[in-house]
Design brief:
CATH topology of the largest domain in chain A: Rossmann fold
Radius of gyration of chain B: 20 Å
CATH class of the largest domain in chain B: Mainly Alpha
Number of helices of chain B: 10
Shape of chain B: elongated
Oligomer: heterodimer
Distance between the termini of chain B: 30 Å
CATH architecture of the largest domain in chain B: Orthogonal Bundle
Strand order of the largest sheet of chain A: 2-1-3-4
Number of domains of chain A: 2
Helix content of chain A: 40-55%
CATH topology of the largest domain in chain B: Fumarate Reductase Iron-sulfur Protein, Chain B, domain 2
Helix content of chain B: 55-70%
Largest interface: A-B, 56 and 58 residues
Radius of gyration of chain A: 19 Å
Number of domains of chain B: 2
CATH class of the largest domain in chain A: Alpha Beta
Strand content of chain B: under 5%
Distance between the termini of chain A: 34 Å
CATH architecture of the largest domain in chain A: 3-Layer(aba) Sandwich
Number of strands of chain B: 0
Largest sheet of chain A: 4 strands, parallel
CATH superfamily of the largest domain in chain B: Alpha-helical ferredoxin
Largest sheet of chain B: none
Number of strands of chain A: 8
Structural class of chain A: alpha/beta
Shape of chain A: globular
Order of helices and strands of chain B: HHHHHHHHHH
Chain lengths: 293, 158
Amino acid sequence: MKYALFLGCTIPARSRNYEMSSRAVAAKLGIEFQDQMDFCCCGFPIKASDEHAATLLAARNLALAEEMNLEICTLCSACTAMLAEVAHKLRYDEGFREEINKDLAAIGRQVKGTARVRHFARILLEDIGVENIHRSVTVDLKGFPVAVHYGCHYLKPSYIYEGGEDPEAARSLDALIAAAGAKSISYIRKKFCCGGSVLVADEKTALGMAKEKLDQVQAAGGRSMVVVCPFCSVMYDDNQKSIESAFNVSYQIPVLYLPQVLGLAMGMDRKTLGLNMNVVKTRKITEDILGAE
Amino acid sequence: MVDSNLQTEDRDVLQDLAERYGVEGVRSCYACGTCAAGCPARRVNPAYNPRKIIRMLVLNEAKSLLEKDTIWLCSSCYTCQERCPQGIKITDLITALRNLAVQQGRSPSGVGMQANLVRSQGRLYALDEFDDKKRKKAGLPSLSPQIEEAVRLLKEES
């Protein structure tokens, strides 16, 4: 099982814990990642300004993946939707493909429209499967209560994800968490957006959106949150302290990336999983689960 | 689809949207409010209202819509687009409106900054020596600090 690993911009610079834990869990499960140094930005950060420019960047990345003859595995949900949306259009709209290829000709590239893109979590679920993941568990997480956060672009817009799941009734992350031996708790506003995209325009609204969910996770007894996107992590983990002081509340809810939880269940240590890099301290969790190291 | 009594500028905006994004569907909106009811941004900041944005488009007020900052409060979560009973691609439409606003020089400063970084580096964050050192320490492979070919692609495009 081999995939072209697409890191995007934020993960290699700001979320090395996500990258480290993803690589470790993938290796453990027999997934091979091929790195591609020439991948550029997925296009999402420029989409609001110039959708055509964003589309070109996405198409260029897809062209590289086609040349590698590998499916793209993404870790960031914004990258996933940006690349999958353009891949979808390139596959089904010949006129669109021709237009894009005219622009790509300037850098000597072409797209055929065969590229495929899936998020790492979806690959884990669909290509490895919950049974195999469960079989690789060596540490009992004892039903540790976690609040799963799907975020938006992992699921939506749903038409770009062929064979994807219903965004109104998503189960994939709950299934993966259960396979790891933790307990996915139910809580109000589970489908709520983190607000990350609003940060650039209006910080107060963005933080307020993140607060809505943290309030509910806390009320439901969630002792950690699990995310699959670095933007969601920025909102809940990096900005948790700002939210606490802006709204005079207190959470201290650790926010983990999905592969960090899976890695813990597979017996990996804190260093391998980059657990010291999470902003809200995670030591209490690992002590509860693993005992003091 | 465009009324003849519209002011030229409004008509231009609508025509542009219609040609590029199939905005005709907007006219099928019967104002049920499903979009506004499920909107997470609206829940926190009532100044944002996707139903009102669609309404303003239907009423040919695209120009005043572009002059307002409210289109930047959408979090692009696609909840409204997924739930719209008329299949209006509301989130895509907001993106189209944002593109037009940027062309007219009306956008939050951070939006332009992000775009400039991507245009000049091919990625949002250039990976400098410091980043590379941290990556090495974490056992992660080195990456190109910037992607020259992507910079060239966007230069050719603009």
